[in-house]
Design goal:
Shape: globular
Helix content: over 70%
Low-confidence stretches: none
Order of helices and strands: HHHHHHHHHHHHHHHH
Structural class: mainly alpha
Number of domains: 2
Distance between the termini: 46 Å
Oligomer: single chain
Number of strands: 0
Mean pLDDT: 90
Length: 346
């Protein structure tokens, strides 16, 4: 499921090149719009999966180890990639470098479109003691219902609430405030706590889940197309319904694919372990190649650029990070052999 969502994220950003460069009346726009809109459940799905993983076990969490791991494996790579993208933008004359710009980019996750996910997930990580304490003591139906209300009222409508209290205040965090995604996190946490039972229930209701998914997907895609370039606040509520159904549907599909296997193939494990690195880096390929094709090659046709960019965005990060994964494994094995040999000599 993690790999599927990571691959769909790449498609979203490749398709955005085409969608932003064509009109709604163009054939290319209409062909790509449907799979592009279908894929928009992936960030809620990533948040859902994070909640599942952390609540799969009843063991007491070592918070010192947990936060050290989040800093080294999530926050620091994110900060380094912000610097990499900043260098690219400065070298390509998008803007002049400033320390203020760099610090703001780290804090708001707005330098490149996909970085906002990191800011959101870090907020959930920061509040992990709260989730561990509260969600294990609150009934699932009550917790999920409350999370939906918070997501709708204090997530999607937070700007409206703030404008009533302080009309002149500009709230810059609306797109990266965790309350907007609380429902998906809480849903994932409860699935993790009751994983086996809920997985069985999902597999027992395959037809119902498929029907709900198809109908909600059709509704979301149709209404998103009809309201494209328009302000339709109620679309957020429609999208919540779609994202929830899509998450459960993909969870069902991947559960069926996995069957009763306890282990996945080496390639699957390798790609899964590098998904975060692929997520952080793939937009650099898109940005660089799009600029190169326009300025150096002179390809103005956005459809041609889309095909080149899509191929490169899938192949280059995947190959690079799989090679990096193999190097890490080889280095780890070599270090282990040297350590064992040293112990034997002693």
């Amino acid at each position: 499921m993690n790999i599927i969502c990571a691959m769909l994220v790449i498609f979203i950003h490749c398709a955005s090149v085409l969608i932003s460069g064509t009109a709604q009346t163009d054939t290319a726009f209409n062909i790509v719009f449907v799979p592009w809109r279908f894929s928009t459940f992936v960030v809620p799905a990533f948040i859902f999966m994070s909640g599942v993983k952390f609540f799969l076990t009843d063991r007491r969490m070592d918070y010192r180890k947990f936060y050290r791991g989040r800093i080294t494996r999530v926050v620091i790579p994110y900060m380094l990639w912000v610097v990499v993208y900043m260098i690219f933008f400065v070298n390509h004359h998008y803007f002049e470098f400033s320390w203020q710009k760099l610090f703001d980019s780290w804090l708001h996750g707005d330098l490149v479109g996909h970085f906002y996910f990191v800011i959101i997930i870090v907020q959930f990580y920061a509040l992990m003691p709260l989730w561990m304490f509260a969600l294990r003591r609150v009934n699932a139906a009550l917790g999920i219902t409350f999370s939906i209300l918070v997501s709708v009222v204090f997530g999607y409508n937070l700007n409206n609430i703030i404008s009533l209290i302080a009309p002149d205040y500009v709230f810059r965090w609306n797109d990266v405030i965790f309350t907007k995604y609380l429902f998906y996190w809480v849903l994932g946490c409860y699935v993790g706590m009751n994983y086996s039972a809920l997985k069985k229930a999902v597999l027992d209701k395959k037809m119902l889940i498929t029907i709900v998914f198809v109908l909600s997907c059709a509704m979301d895609v149709f209404l998103a197309y009809k309201t494209y370039n328009m302000t339709a606040p109620w679309m957020e509520e429609v999208h919540i319904i779609y994202c929830a159904s899509a998450i459960i549907f993909i969870f069902m599909i991947t559960s069926l694919a996995a069957g009763d296997r306890k282990k996945t193939m080496w390639l699957t494990r390798a790609v899964d372990s590098e998904c975060y690195n692929i997520y952080l880096s793939h937009c650099l390929v898109i940005l660089w190649l799009n600029d190169y094709l326009i300025t150096e090659v002179g390809i103005e046709d956005v459809v041609r650029r889309f095909w080149y960019i899509t191929a490169a965005a899938y192949i280059l990060p995947l190959v690079f990070w799989l090679l990096w994964h193999m190097i890490k494994l080889s280095a780890s094995k070599l270090a282990g052999l040297l350590k064992n040999r040293k112990v034997m000599v002693q």
